[in-house]
Design a protein that fits this description.
The protein is mainly α. The chain is built from eight helices and four strands; from the N terminus they run H-E-E-H-H-H-H-H-E-H-H-E. Helix 5 crosses helix 7 (188-214). It is rod-shaped.
Length: 245
């Protein structure tokens, strides 16, 4: 919800109804054949503006709480007062909604970005702080690539292809060292983690790094944080691996 826009429209309507009620006064009506009609020209203009604003105000009130739209009838003086009171209640709700989100949501775990692997957060931090989220993800991926190149001593490959070569279960070859998850290399659990590290690393570069490098438009903060978390896992796995030559 665009709370600032909602607040502006509600405040404007509150001021409009207040001005109308003041201008109307207790003697601003004469009886016609069907209903009282405002005779003051200013009252006529304000009444028109009030009715023009009503549909949007009803939508806003209904979005906040459908109960707020009950008993609003701008044809009647009592309904006008009800409308103003309900709008003021809605403004109070908007004022408190940020605090509701903090105070009333269930407790849930949270990710602390500064606890991500240093290869990730050190590279992403400055861009993240300036709200360049897609660029922050790209910087993290580039940092991991650089550290991996250094670890295996290769500059001829990069990104997903480098991950594939470094974490391959093939024996090392001249000029092609491999990374191995620590532990007994015949243990099924270790072998499973080895395959998982390979697949996760390749997937992160294919699914996250490539779009970050080539697509336009920024990422949302939450999505970018999740992507940084993924690269942090990849970085830890690579950092823990032993180089086999």
């Amino acid at each position: 919800m665009d709370r600032d826009w909602m607040r502006q429209r509600l405040e404007a309507f509150d001021a409009l109804v207040t001005k109308y009620l003041t201008a109307r006064g207790p003697t601003s009506y004469v009886l016609s054949s069907d209903r009282p009609q405002p005779v003051n020209p200013e009252v006529r203009v304000l009444r028109t503006e009030m009715f023009k604003a009503e549909p949007t105000i009803r939508k806003i009130l209904s979005c906040l709480d459908p109960e707020l739209t009950k008993d609003i009838d701008l044809e009647r003086s009592s309904g006008q007062h009800v409308a103003r009171n309900q709008v003021r209640r809605a403004l109070g709700m908007l004022d408190d909604m940020d605090e509701w989100a903090t105070r009333l949501t269930p407790d849930a775990p949270a990710l602390s970005a500064d606890q991500f692997h240093p290869w990730v957060w050190d590279a992403a931090r400055t861009l993240w702080e300036s709200a360049h989220y897609r660029a922050a993800v790209h910087a993290a991926a580039t940092s991991i690539n650089a550290h991996l190149q250094t670890k295996v001593g290769r500059r001829d490959l990069a990104d997903a292809k480098l991950v594939q070569e470094a974490l391959s279960d093939k024996p090392p070859e001249p000029g092609k060292p491999r990374l191995r998850i620590p532990g007994d290399q015949t243990d099924p659990g270790v072998l499973t983690r080895q395959r998982g590290a390979l697949q996760l690393g390749q997937g992160a570069y294919f699914a996250l790094r490539n779009p970050a490098a080539h697509e336009t438009g920024d990422l949302g903060e939450q999505e970018a944080l999740e992507q940084l978390a993924t690269f942090s896992v990849v970085a830890r796995l690579i950092d823990q691996c032993q180089v086999v030559t």
